Automatic annotation (TrEMBL):
Transmembrane spans: 21-42, 80-99, 169-187, 199-221, 284-306, 318-343, 350-371, 383-404, 425-446, 452-472
Pfam families in UniProt: Sugar_tr
Primary localization: membrane
UniProt xrefs under PROSITE patterns: MFS, SUGAR_TRANSPORT_1, SUGAR_TRANSPORT_2
Domain (Major facilitator superfamily (MFS) profile): residue spans on this chain: 25-476
PANTHER family xrefs: MAJOR FACILITATOR SUPERFAMILY (MFS) PROFILE DOMAIN-CONTAINING PROTEIN, SOLUTE CARRIER FAMILY 2, FACILITATED GLUCOSE TRANSPORTER
Compartments (UniProt record): Membrane
Organism phylogeny: Eukaryota, Viridiplantae, Streptophyta, Embryophyta, Tracheophyta
Protein name: Major facilitator superfamily (MFS) profile domain-containing protein
The UniProt record lists the keyword Transport: yes
Amino acid sequence: MAIGLAATSGSGHYDGRITSFVILSCGIAAMGGLIFGYDIGISGGVTSMEPFLRKFFPEVYVKMKEDTKVSNYCKFDSQLLTSFTSSLYIAGLVASIFASPVTRYFGRKPSILAGGAAFLSGSALNGAASNIYMLLFGRILLGIGVGFSNQSVPLYLSEMAPPRYRGAINNGFQLCIGIGVLAANFINFGTEKIEGGWGWRISLSMAAVPALILTIGSFFLPETPNSLIQRNNDHQKAKEVLQRIRGTTNVQAELDDLINASSISKTVDSPFKKITCTKYRPQLVMAIAIPFFQIVTGINVISFYAPQLFRTLGLSESVSLIMSALIAGVVGTASTLISMLVVDKFGRRAMFMLGGVQMFVSQITVGGVMATQLGDHGSLGKGYAYSVLSMICIYVSGFAWSWGPLGWLVPSEIFPLEIRSAGQSIVVAVIFLFTFIVAQTFLAMLCHFKSGIFFFFGGWVAVMTVFVYLLLPETKMVPIELMDKIWKEHWFWKRIVGAVDEESKMGSA
């Protein structure tokens, strides 16, 4: 059944609607974002809980509670503690590479299923952990789950969505990440108060809930028309699915473009080798640059270590956890919802740049206050502490409506079918690689850079805002299978892509 929202592409080329079938399918698939967000939110809160630290990281607990000579910025500096957080991301990096051939040759559904099942196993192991080895192995299983789901879910959402509403539907992935972070922070706040010191087990094992929804739901998901054509050359089945998800029988124009893209993709034996060709240089640059910039915004400083950061400011354990919930959860989720409503109206470029300015100003302000008001010992005055919290709210909001969702949306919509699974794997691998680096090094960086950590990330925000202004063309409402045209019309990329086209014409003449 279709809801009455007509959806034609920017070129007027395709007919279609947003159907309830698409909403339901994409809602289940977007649970992949929920498990990712839940883990991001839960790990920072759990690693600030004193019973958890006493059991697995006693040296950190001693520094935090008993060693008054340790700098405010160095209380949580432990490579073993950061390994708990970062081990998931190195596992996810490796898993995303293996996920690419699964997604390409077996379909989007099996990859989503594998992600949900692995995450379900990891959450059970973490909740039952009795030693550091069980804890880390559980994190590795979680990483495998996130690697598979992050590789396949954004592709699934972009391929199912009508071009006109692709931004809003794909941003549902980031919305679910935000909801996962929100739920995790409130669960941490509640479980921290459980007497007996076992609340952290509930926090870790509750990750099984969204993982179970994703795993069971994946059995009922339809495969995307793109994947059906690419894998089985089943044009009739693809047409039936396309008619169902578009809410119209007039899908021949879109189907023809899908068949044409699939024909090109089948001439490619090695997508990872193909994506390095000059013809795909713009997509490769974006596949590396956009996820890299998304991570060096410094968002993981807030996502992973907000409770530790707030305790550095002198706040108590409970207050730190509730502030993490309010800032990373409520503010982030509300801002992502706003992004879903406006992304297909205002476009990607404007939102990237405005969000960058908002994040830059807030980070520089936070760094300035901490540099002048927070020493190695003691805490901030109440007024300054609240000003820092306000600026962090503004920062999280800026990320959540711009670089957060768009960092997933834009890469998922720019790749031609023949390199799509490889391109998305590169995006996910870059995200996991630099997330691992930031997660593993941040507490040490905080200890050594102190307040300068905010100037460090603020500098990167300035660089990436200029990068978007100069090098990213607008992708709003452009059908995925016609996306190659935007590079040929861009002031910089047309020199590269246009030169390849000229060589091709001369070679065929």
